[in-house]
Amino acid sequence: MKILITGASSGLGAELARQYASSQNELILLARREDKLFKLRSELFEITKSIDIIVADVTDFTTLQEKIKPINNLDIVILNAGISLGHSDEIPTIAEFKNLYDVNVLSNHAILEILLPKFKEQQSGKIVFISSLASLISMPSSKVYSSSKRALNAYAEGIRYKYNKYGIKVINILPGFVKSELTDKNDFNMPFILSTQDGVKRIKKAIEKNKRIYVFPLRFYLIIRALNLLPKFLREKIVNSVN
Ligand SMILES: NC(=O)c1ccc[n+]([C@@H]2O[C@H](COP(=O)([O-])OP(=O)(O)OC[C@H]3O[C@@H](n4cnc5c(N)ncnc54)[C@H](OP(=O)(O)O)[C@@H]3O)[C@@H](O)[C@H]2O)c1
For 35, which DSSP code? Predict the structure, then answer.
């Protein structure tokens, strides 16, 4: 299989590259930190058919699209690049808000604007979005991140409805806490946090099974579902006390 992974220089993306590395698979790894990508390529070189590296900032949409255009016969694109603003009670600046949306939402469309016609023509392809459990509930300290992932859910759903008749599978993954550079910045207790390997194993399995939406870990998902069923005033009280 030929697989493009964005945000492949660390965390879930780098581990996805490790777990997809095999003599059957061609990997294309995209991120900004060239040194990390080349280090990963050396690590996986012997076990993988081929590894191409794309050094790109996903918020530079024009350059990003130029670099995506030459890619053909792709089987899977994993839209994993993402950032958070951390957890803070400060009001985010408009520049921070815009940059987060550029990375977490718009960059995915910049890539799909190029890839969708190709997938449509080949009548196959898997599009994997990496959303978040945080899209299901908005914590006051991470509202911008939550809103971006909720926007991503709506976008993924629309793409699925439109393109499934062309043999294109759309898979939306909503992870809870998984160890990565992103979560290493959190200075609070993260419920049910998973190792990077375990988190990615689950994601890979969901991709294999063509799950439309995959939310994990289950226990955390059930707690959030239960919270969302509570009367609004009670939910607000609990959310504020947890926050
Ligand atoms: N870890 C969790 O608990 C968790 C939970 C739910 C969802 N997620 C989602 O999982 C995805 C991966 O996050 P992670 O936890 O693995 O965090 P991470 O270790 O910080 O990885 C983020 C990746 O995104 C890339 N990236 C960020 N900004 C970019 C930009 N402007 N251009 C190109 N690449 C960029 C980074 O590469 P460079 O810095 O080299 O560019 C890095 O490879 C994100 O979408 C995140 O929202 C994570």
Answer: H
User: Active-site residue 214, yes or no?
Assistant: no
Does residue 20 line the site of ligand 1, with CB under 6 A? no
Greatest Cα-to-Cα distance within the chain, rounded to the nearest angstrom: 57
pTM for the model stands at 0.97
The tally of domains found in the chain comes to 1
How far is it, in rounded angstroms, from Cα 219 to Cα 202?
Answer: 15
Residue 59 half-sphere exposure toward CB, CA atoms < 13 A: 13
Phi, psi dihedrals of residue 126, rounded to the nearest 5°: -120, 130
Work out the average pLDDT over 47-76. Answer: 96
User: Can you give the CATH number for the domain in which 141 is found?
Assistant: 3.40.50.720
| Confidence tier at 181 by pLDDT (50, 70, 90) | very high
Range of the domain at 174: 2-242
> Which of 145, 155, 163, 214 is an active site residue?
145
Question: What per-residue string of b and e applies to 220-237 under the rule 16 or more CB within 10 Å gives b?
Answer: bbeebeeeeeeeeeeeee
What is the rounded CA–CA span in Å between residue 182 and residue 85?
9
Per cent of the chain over pLDDT 90 is 88
C-beta of 81 in contact with ligand 1 (< 6 A): yes
Where do we find the tokens 């509202």? 143
Angle at 147 between CA 212 and CA 179, to 5 degrees: 70
pLDDT digits (tens, 9 = 90+) for 84-110: 998 777 889 999 999 999 999 999 999
Out of 84, 101, 182, give the residue to mutate to test ligand 1, the one with the largest number of ligand atoms within 8 Å of its CB. 182
